[in-house]
Amino acid sequence: MRILGLYVGMWIAFIAMIVVNFLSNYLPINGQTTAEISNRIEVLFTPASYVFSIWGLIYFLLLVWLILQYKSIKNNEFSSQIGVLFVFSCLFNIAWLFSWHYEKFALSILFMVLLLVTLILIYVQYPNTAQGLSERLPFSFYLAWITVATIVNISYVLKYYGVDLGISEAVGSLVLVAAVVVIGYLALENSNDIYFVLVIVWALIGIVMKTSNITMQNGTLIMTIILIIAALAQLMINRKTQRA
Predict the structure, then answer these.
(1) pLDDT of 124-179, one tens digit each?
(2) Vertex 150: Cα angle to 147 and 152 (nearest 5)
(3) What domain range is 53 assigned to?
């Protein structure tokens, strides 16, 4: 009964997250959409608007994952720890939206980081071989995107408050791009997670498409190509290792 109660709670949290996300743009919350707030300030480390459509895929994958958890419950394979973490991830997602729409930007970083940490905790519960729809796959997409979104969020808030780190925005943004590239590669090397890399590449291409800063555009494009080549090489290495 406790497991079933948790499962119901997961559904309630998920539906609440979807509803709040819907209202955030179609109500909208506090009279402004998420994109309207984001577009007030030009931040170089921000993908083009179309890139954010990945949220639809993420929510669809989470929906499928949630449905499939019922089978895990019947087979006594359900992880209550993952279930609890999933509920918290939904709550942090909702909290981020309210803090963002009511322009509590410093607070939005806190909730975004909490969401990121929660997704990491879910992600590491699965072994590298558990990459199905009922396992790690949805969280590969979700975690990769929130990794990028966290950096975008922090970059926006720093620029909003006029925080100067002593380097040009283009150089600082390229450092962030390099960090994301490294994270994407490490996810493939250590977790054999190609889906994580695909999301990172999707976001980086979106940055190239949006920015008009030549330095940022060329630097991001070069590092994206490097990531793609490195990922393909690592995939070949992983396959050879598995066959050996």
Answers:
(1) 999 998 999 999 999 999 999 999 999 999 999 999 998 887 788 999 999 999 99
(2) 110
(3) 2-243
Number of domains in the chain: 1
Distance (Å, rounded) from C-alpha 195 to C-alpha 211?
Answer: 25
Task: Tokens for 166, please give them.
Answer: 């002593």
Q: Are 58 and 138 in contact (CB under 8 A)?
A: yes
What length is written for the chain? 244
Return all residues near 132 (Cβ < 8 A) that are at least 6 apart. none
Q: What is the pTM of this model?
A: 0.95
Q: How do residues 86-120 score in pLDDT, each as one tens digit?
A: 999 999 999 999 999 999 999 999 999 999 999 99
Task: Give the CB-side neighbour count of residue 198, counting CA atoms within 13 A.
Answer: 11
199 in Cβ contact with 149 (< 8 Å): no
First to last CA, the chain: 45
Query: What is the biggest distance separating any 2 CA atoms in the chain, rounded to whole angstroms?
Result: 59
Q: What residue spans of the chain are helical by DSSP H?
A: 2-26, 34-38, 54-74, 80-101, 105-123, 137-160, 169-191, 194-210, 214-243
Whether the CB-CB separation of 182 and 176 falls below 8 Å is answered with: no
